[in-house]
Design a protein that fits this description.
The complex is a heterodimer of chains A (about 450) and B (about 230).
Chain A: H1 2-40, H2 50-74, E1 77-82, E2 87-91, H3 102-111, E3 130-138, E4 141-150, H4 153-203, H5 218-251, H6 253-269, H7 275-302, E5 308-311, H8 312-330, E6 333-337, E7 342-345, H9 347-364, E8 370-378, E9 381-387, H10 395-400, H11 420-430, E10 434-439, E11 445-452
Parallel strand pairs in A: 6-8
Antiparallel strand pairs in A: 1-2, 1-4, 3-4, 5-7, 8-9, 9-11, 10-11
Chain B: E1 2-6, H1 10-22, E2 26-30, H2 33-39, E3 49-53, H3 61-71, E4 76-80, H4 85-94, E5 98-101, H5 106-128, E6 132-135, E7 138-141, E8 146-149, E9 152-154, H6 158-169, E10 174-176, H7 177-185, H8 193-207, E11 213-216, E12 220-223
Parallel strand pairs in B: 1-2, 1-3, 3-4, 4-5
Antiparallel strand pairs in B: 6-7, 7-8, 8-9, 10-12, 11-12
Helix pairs in contact in B: 2-3, 6-7, 6-8
The chains are: A alpha+beta (about 450), B alpha/beta (about 230).
Chain lengths: ~450, ~230
């Protein structure tokens, strides 16, 4: 746009300057023609005719007076010069033809009986003067030349004025164009921004968000409708998936029940105190537990966190107290450092997550080693760190932990389905929290649960 | 004791019926809510307990529960999934007496069956004004804690009497060992197993009715009602 305006404005400016100059030049030409006419009758005639001398001198005087008043009024130097540079009349009186320069050139041209060519364009930043010369012709011969040398101040200021008007016009046009462009892009971009915001909300878990189809070009309105359709489908698919897991877990209940009951019947046939039967019963129960955990996970993934300002120090202390008897029975030291700390979390899901983590820590820590639970906060987040004195995990294992059903190969034999930490991760994520794992020196695992300190700024 | 099992899955029903039969229960299987309601006509139709699975095909389990409650006072135990606290509360509100989680833990199921039927037993006997059990030539006076065989008193220790009275509450029903120990010895300590055997042997000897108390191998004991 700016380029176009520039491209159009420059010739316009030039033509304004040219027009101004042209006016002046035309004026001068008129003037020089008039003076030429006057001068035509003022020529040196061979002496001898007294009668004609007097009028010639009078005319010359007239011409001189004309030139002088011309000079006084307009400040334009003017002079009529013979072929030999001698002035017939000139104003100001001390103005003579210079040896070189524009004036001389114009004079020379005029001598060739041509009106001088149009002087070069004088720009507002130049201080040149305009020279126009006309020949004085008598009987077909050039006898003298009228030369005018005009100041260009006025002309230049007029040009400048014209240019300023053009400039102002262009700027106004630019502003208008920019304003219109902003409105247009705003009209197009606003729906895009809305779409972006809703996409982000869906991606972070509020599956129900939709775009209001309003405003913007028809293509974007169509896009918004398509987006809503897609979001509906995504929500449906996720819901189906969750329902499938819940359903499958449910469906497995009956076959599992029948199986366990048949095992009971078998047990009645065998001699009492048969050890295999006890093991079989245990396996059956384990299977039932996995089913239940699966169902929990399906429900957790569906869960919407019920967030509130909570004192996680007190909450953690309570969990530590709940696990203390078990830890004591096992000979494990369970130590808690839980100052009052606020956080934005769902107390139920945080309790569940902490239970899973502390259970894990106590389970894997041998006798006389310690499990330590500390609560702290820094800036934006509050943390609960649980460290244990167990065998810990290798670097590769650290990456995999938290995957569903994953258990380290070295720890397959310890009771539990492996779903607990995975469920915790999902539950925490629903509330904007995270759980991460690291080595604990000299040996053991360090689990860090992070929750935001405060709710979203509303 | 007669049990009505309301369960739509045939495999589960067959397996559960078999286990319950081994424990001395007489199980009738209804495959749907409708069948169940018909079986309970008239007035409970002599069933001691109804086992109701909530996942029925034709009617909402809760509806069936409500309807059963309207027709009869037979105790109802509903069967739910573990995590389903709301279902349980709802069912209990609608008139179920207790709940059991699927997959079944046999010991727990039997304990609950006994628990709900104990109430009605006491109600029935209170209503009837009975405080004596008559089983052929055996007479058990609950209020005086006296046992008579063919009219003559038999001296029993405290525990022996409690044991006999417990078994006599439900003739034919197998009482699991741990349940007997819980109720008679008031402990869950497993070490009392041999004590139980000793007491049973002693009872058999004193009553001179060796066929009265039957040993159900791997499970417990039951009282066989004399046919005379």
């Amino acid at each position: 746009m700016a380029a176009v305006l520039l491209a159009l404005g420059v010739p316009l400016a030039i033509s304004v300057a040219a027009a101004q100059q042209q006016t002046v030049v035309v004026d001068r030409i008129d003037d020089t023609a008039r003076f030429a006419a006057l001068a035509q009758f003022v020529t040196d005639r061979p002496t001898g005719s007294r009668v004609k001398d007097m009028p010639a001198d009078e005319r010359r005087e007239t011409l001189q007076r004309e030139l002088e008043s011309y000079y006084d009024v307009y400040g334009i130097r003017a002079g009529v010069f013979y072929r030999n540079d001698v002035p017939m009349a000139n104003a100001p009186a001390d103005w003579y033809l210079p040896e070189t320069g524009e004036v001389r050139d114009a004079f020379a041209e005029a001598l060739l009986s041509r009106r001088s060519h149009d002087p070069q364009q004088v720009w507002p930043w130049q201080r040149n003067r305009l020279v126009v010369a006309s020949p004085v012709i008598r009987d077909g011969d050039v006898v003298a030349v009228v030369v005018t040398d005009s100041p260009t101040g006025h002309m230049r200021s007029q040009t400048l004025h014209g240019w300023i008007v053009i400039g102002a016009g262009e700027i106004a046009a630019m502003l208008l164009a920019v304003g219109a462009a902003l409105r247009l892009t705003g009209w197009v971009l606003r729906p895009v921004r809305v779409l972006d915001a809703v996409t982000h909300r869906i991606a972070t878990g509020s599956l129900k968000s939709r775009v209001a189809v309003a405003g913007g070009p028809p293509e974007l309105r169509r896009l918004a409708r398509s987006f809503n359709e897609m979001a509906d489908n995504v929500e449906d698919v996720l819901e189906q998936q969750r329902a499938f897991v819940a359903d499958a877990s449910h469906q497995l209940r009956n076959p599992l029940s029948a199986l366990l009951l048949r095992i009971e019947l078998l047990a009645l046939e065998l001699p009492e105190d048969n050890e295999e039967i006890a093991s079989v019963r245990t396996e059956g129960k384990r299977l039932a537990e996995v089913l239940d955990d699966l169902l929990d996970l399906a429900l957790a993934e569906h869960a919407e966190a019920d967030l509130a300002l909570t004192d996680i120090g007190a909450l953690t202390a309570e969990r530590v107290a709940a696990w203390s008897p078990l830890a004591e029975a096992k000979g494990v030291q369970l130590v808690g450092d839980c100052p009052a700390t606020t956080a934005w979390a769902d107390p139920v899901t945080l309790s569940s997550a902490l239970d899973a983590v502390i259970d894990n820590a106590v389970k894997f820590t041998p006798e006389d080693e310690r499990v330590r639970v500390s609560v702290a906060s820094n800036g934006e987040t509050s943390t609960v760190v649980v460290t244990d004195g167990g065998p810990g995990l290798t670097d590769e294992e650290l990456v995999r932990i938290g995957d569903r059903f994953w258990r380290s190969g070295r720890h397959q034999n310890i009771k539990g389905s492996g779903l607990g930490l995975s469920i915790s991760r999902v539950l925490l994520a629903a509330g904007g929290g995270t759980i991460s794992y690291d080595h604990h020196e000299p040996h053991g695992l360090k689990v860090t649960v992070r929750v935001p300190r405060s709710g979203p700024a509303s | 004791m007669r049990l009505l099992l309301v369960e739509d899955d045939n495999h589960v029903a067959a397996a559960l019926s078999a286990v319950l039969a081994r424990h001395g229960f007489d199980v009738t299987h209804a495959r749907s809510g409708e069948e169940a309601l018909q079986a309970l006509v008239p007035e409970g139709n002599g069933f001691g307990v109804v086992l109701l699975d909530l996942g029925l095909p034709d009617q909402d389990g809760y509806e069936v529960c409500g309807k059963i409650r309207k027709r009869t006072s037979t105790p109802v135990i509903m069967v739910t999934a573990r995590a389903d606290v709301r279902s349980r509360i709802h069912g209990l509100n609608l008139g179920a007496d207790d709940y059991v989680v699927k997959p079944y833990d046999t010991g727990e199921l039997l304990a609950r069956i006994h628990a709900v039927s104990r109430r009605t037993f006491h109600e029935d006997s209170a209503e009837a004004g009975e405080n004596a059990l008559l089983l052929g030539s055996l007479r058990i006076e609950l209020s005086t804690r006296q046992v008579l065989v063919d009219g003559s008193v038999v001296q029993l220790t405290r525990k022996e009497f409690d044991l006999l009275a417990l078994l006599a509450q439900r003739p034919g029903v197998v009482f699991r060992r741990e349940q007997i120990i819980s109720e008679v010895w008031r402990t869950s300590w497993e070490g009392t197993g041999r004590t139980l055997e000793v007491h049973v042997a002693s009872l058999r000897a004193k009553l001179r009715m060796p066929a009265l108390i039957e040993t159900v191998r791997g499970v417990g004991y039951r009282l066989v009602a004399p046919t005379s």
